[in-house]
Write a structure and sequence with these properties.
single chain, 197 residues, 7 strands
Length: 197
């Protein structure tokens, strides 16, 4: 039973900056901490594109290798992704935890496919986060050289709030072309943050 959780879902390893990204482009205030699985359930934020236009973005629980077999938050994580119209791969391009950013992307992609191959047919973009760190440019070039998928890459720093408007507008355009699913059910657990300004 497919229900809509959000327009856009942020996917990636724990601690790659998904919560920080959501907090700086929406009114959401997710818990942000330097340990894995800070986000245990989806946090939804409304992203304002213009006075007349906005969309809902979800910070989803972090993914680890083996999630499609139930490791980490496993199926709980993946069922939420299944209910987002557009997916954003958030990559720690500075490799702050000494992982290969491209391998992170491949692992995420593999776990999505292992859970439900249809997920890879969803519109997707890649957010190269933590570009404020010196090492990130080197990793980014290697990432681009190895990337075989034709997905747009946005270079950002959620921490310094760099290049965030480009993501917002690109996602808005992508959502205009992406069909909507039915609304989520009342039984689902979620938090939505609205900007009261």
């Amino acid at each position: 039973e497919l229900k809509l959780l959000a327009d856009v879902g942020l996917v990636g390893y724990p601690s790659v900056g998904k919560s920080t990204l959501l907090s700086v482009i929406s009114a959401a205030k997710p818990e942000i901490a330097a340990y894995h699985f800070t986000t245990l359930s989806p946090i939804l934020g409304v992203v304002r594109v213009s006075e007349e236009k906005n969309f809902v973005m979800a910070d989803l629980p972090g993914l680890i290798e083996g999630a499609s077999e139930g490791k980490g938050l496993g199926f709980n994580f993946l069922k939420h992704i299944e209910r987002c119209r557009v997916l954003v791969h958030v990559i720690d391009m500075a490799s702050t935890e000494s992982r290969d950013p491209y391998q992170d992307y491949l692992t995420i992609k593999h776990e999505l496919e292992a859970y439900n191959p249809e997920l890879l047919k969803r519109p997707q973009i890649i957010v190269a986060n933590k570009m404020d760190q010196d090492e990130a440019q080197l990793f980014l070039q290697e990432f681009k050289d190895r990337l075989e998928d034709d997905l747009p890459i946005f270079e950002v720093s959620a921490l310094t709030k760099t290049n965030l408007n480009a993501i917002v507008y690109a996602l808005s355009d992508l959502l205009d072309k992406t069909p909507k699913f039915p609304l989520f059910s009342e039984q689902d657990e979620y938090k939505v943050y609205l900007n009261t300004n």
